[in-house]
């Protein structure tokens, strides 16, 4: 598991280096970027469903990785995301992998590089809460966000929204499914 987590961090760094190097060059303006790579940190208030657990604040780290396909024209952008959560609290190893696809709708003249946007998406919560039984749950989410540009090749990205994760007996027993979360993300976006 540590190798997988280390590999994800290494991949995120490797993908961001060419963008950072390009931003350092003093060349003539290039064509509009066609991809957005980003990393987010999450925090949310979680209210469990029927599993009997109490509500509370969850800070979900390490990160969400996202890769958006910026359209040349139009207001809609597709963005695949991948979240990974690893937890060893209580002597039990639990991990969750969440692949999903979001659609962003730009609501500002800055297009997908600055200003306000609306977001909605769907994905799967794939988990192994005990090492002996794994489970899968459906995830739906929606929100509103803002991009604030910095430099020539990036932006800070803020998002507020909600998530609903469906039932899964294996995952709900340890609080990884059957809940509603209201919270936000803070992240960074780089374009290429």
- From the coordinates shown, what is the CATH architecture? Beta Barrel
What's the CATH class label? Mainly Beta
The general outline is elongated
How many angstroms does the end-to-end distance come to?
A: 31 Å
* Low-confidence runs: 8-13, 23-29
Strand content: over 45%
Question: Structural class per helix/strand content?
Answer: mainly beta
Helix count? 2
Quaternary status of these chains?
single chain
What is the arithmetic mean of pLDDT?
78
The overall strand count is: 8
Number of domains: 1
Radius of gyration: 18 Å
Q: SSE string, helix = H, strand = E?
A: HEEEEEEEHE
Q: Your description of this structure?
A:
This protein is mainly β. The chain has one domain (2-24, 36-191): Porin (Beta Barrel). It has helices spanning 2-24, 169-172; strands spanning 35-48, 56-69, 76-87, 94-106, 115-128, 135-150, 154-165, 179-191. The longest helix has 23 residues, at 2-24. It is elongated and about 50 Å long. The two termini are 31 Å apart.
Which helices and strands, and how do they pair?
Layout: H1 2-24, E1 35-48, E2 56-69, E3 76-87, E4 94-106, E5 115-128, E6 135-150, E7 154-165, H2 169-172, E8 179-191
Antiparallel strand pairs: 1-2, 1-8, 2-3, 3-4, 4-5, 5-6, 6-7, 7-8
